């Protein structure tokens, strides 16, 4: 498979996703420490114009465990971005140093724009409230490993308006014919353009504001953080902060095989007591970012 830029889940077919998930499975032993020199001599550049812990460090881990090197732009204030350099110029330059670029940027559409100026693959690690396709691939992988992608009943809860993880995930889930319940306050519903797209693809979507009512009918509960930094008005954030909270008591209503996922970081939307229940999978999920990103790097650098 020839894979150039990874910008949005809309760029992938169902078959391509299956190939990536299968490759990720092959990489799991290396993610757990088995030696590899598959990407020896290759350089990955990481450019994060927004905070990141998991995405940046799991890409870095994936690259290093495969024997490759990583160069990092570091904090935006210390790079030429602070002097006013455009994203297009930064990308042109770094494309001459590295074999692939991981980019996170606050502006929606920035990754697709960057791809137009890059002579190496751009891997979109989040473009504002837009997309986060590499997170989606690790989310799908988690579902495959910990539950099942077939006949899946899943609820996405929280900030469906500004949450890029759920935008990308919803597109992918529609390819797997999942039965989706979207749970959010009215003002944080999934954007209409996305819902329209999903319905065009024949997706089964139900919208509600109530999490409790659906807990007994789902295989996966995908919880998200309210994206405080995207609210134009802090008062509007205060109205919805802490609106959903998954607790151990609430989970008495859950099916036995339910799994709970969260892209993390979490604030108070999952009570820490839930971590000790059989339902919690969010820390496994963050580990799965490593084998999945290994598969993406190997493909982007055309060695697998
Ligand atoms: C998410 C993101 O950056 O969109 N984090 C991540 O990559 N795991 C989710 C979030 O910030 O809430």
The major pleated sheet works out as:
5 strands, parallel
Which CATH class of the largest domain is shown?
A: Alpha Beta
* Beta strands, count: 9
Tell me what the CATH architecture of the largest domain is: 3-Layer(aba) Sandwich
At the third CATH level, what is the topology name of the largest domain?
A: Rossmann fold
What is the ordering of alpha helices and beta strands? HEHEHEHEHEHEHEEHEH
Helix content: 25-40%
Mean pLDDT: 96
Separation, N- and C-terminal Cα atoms: 9 Å
Q: Strand portion, in percent? A: 5-15%
Order of strands in the sheet with the most strands? 7-6-5-8-9
- Structural class by sheet pairing and helices: alpha/beta
Number of helices: 9
Radius of gyration: 19 Å
Catalytic activity: carbamoyl phosphate + L-aspartate = N-carbamoyl-L-aspartate + phosphate + H(+)
EC number: 2.1.3.2
Binding site for carbamoyl phosphate: 54-55, 104, 132, 135, 264-265
Function: Catalyzes the condensation of carbamoyl phosphate and aspartate to form carbamoyl aspartate and inorganic phosphate, the committed step in the de novo pyrimidine nucleotide biosynthesis pathway.
Structure at a glance:
The protein has nine helices and nine strands. With 304 residues, it is of the alpha/beta class.
Describe this structure in words.
- Residues 4-144 form the Aspartate/ornithine carbamoyltransferase carbamoyl-P binding domain.
- L-aspartate binds at residues 83, 164, 225.
- Pfam families: OTCace, OTCace_N.
- The protein is an alpha/beta fold and 304 residues long.
- It has 2 domains: 9-131 and 288-300, Rossmann fold, CATH 3.40.50; 133-286, 3-Layer(aba) Sandwich (Rossmann fold), CATH 3.40.50.1370.
- The chain has 9 helices and 9 strands.
- It has helices at residues 14-31, 54-65, 87-94, 110-117, 133-146, 164-175, 192-200, 234-240, 282-300; strands at 43-48, 69-72, 100-105, 122-127, 153-157, 179-183, 204-208, 220-223, 259-261.
- The strands form 2 sheets. The protein has a 5-stranded parallel β-sheet with strand order 7-6-5-8-9. It has a 4-stranded parallel β-sheet with strand order 2-1-3-4, with helices on both faces.
- Strand 6 (179-183), helix 7 and strand 7 form a beta-alpha-beta unit.
- Helix 1 packs across helix 9 and helix 5 crosses helix 9 (282-300).
- The protein is globular and about 55 Å long.
- The N and C termini lie close together (9 Å).
- The relative contact order is 0.17.
- Bound molecules: N-carbamoyl-L-aspartate.
- The site of N-carbamoyl-L-aspartate (NCD) has 10 residues, from helix 2 and helix 6.
């Amino acid at each position: 498979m020839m894979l150039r830029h990874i910008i949005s889940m809309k760029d992938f077919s169902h078959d391509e996703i299956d190939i990536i998930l299968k490759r990720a499975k092959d990489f799991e032993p290396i993610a757990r420490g088995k030696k590899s020199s598959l990407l020896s001599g290759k350089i990955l550049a990481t450019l994060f114009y927004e905070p990141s812990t998991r995405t940046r460090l799991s890409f870095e881990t994936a690259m290093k465990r495969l024997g490759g090197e990583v160069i990092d732009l570091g904090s935006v204030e210390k790079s030429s971005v602070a002097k006013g350099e455009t994203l297009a110029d930064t990308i042109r330059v770094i494309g001459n140093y590295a074999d692939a670029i991981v980019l996170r940027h606050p502006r929606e559409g920035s990754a697709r724009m960057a791809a137009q100026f890059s002579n190496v693959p751009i891997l979109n690690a989040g473009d504002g409230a837009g997309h986060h396709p590499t997170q989606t691939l690790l989310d799908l992988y988690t579902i495959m490993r910990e539950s099942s992608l077939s006949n899946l009943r899943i609820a996405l809860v929280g900030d469906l308006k500004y949450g890029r993880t759920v935008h990308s995930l919803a597109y992918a889930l529609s390819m797997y014919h999942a039965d989706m319940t979207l749970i959010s306050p009215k003002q944080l519903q999934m954007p209409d353009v996305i819902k329209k797209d999903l319905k065009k693809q024949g997706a089964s979507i139900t919208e509600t504001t109530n999490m409790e009512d659906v807990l007994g009918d789902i295989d996966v509960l995908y919880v998200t953080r309210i994206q405080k930094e995207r609210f134009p008005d802090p008062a509007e954030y205060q109205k919805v902060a802490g609106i959903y909270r998954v607790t151990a008591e609430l989970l008495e209503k859950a099916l036995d095989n339910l799994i709970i996922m969260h892209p993390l970081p979490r604030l108070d939307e999952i009570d820490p007591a839930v971590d000790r229940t059989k339902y919690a999978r969010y820390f496994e999920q963050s580990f799965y970012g490593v084998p999945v990103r290994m598969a993406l790097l190997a493909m982007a650098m055309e060695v697998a």
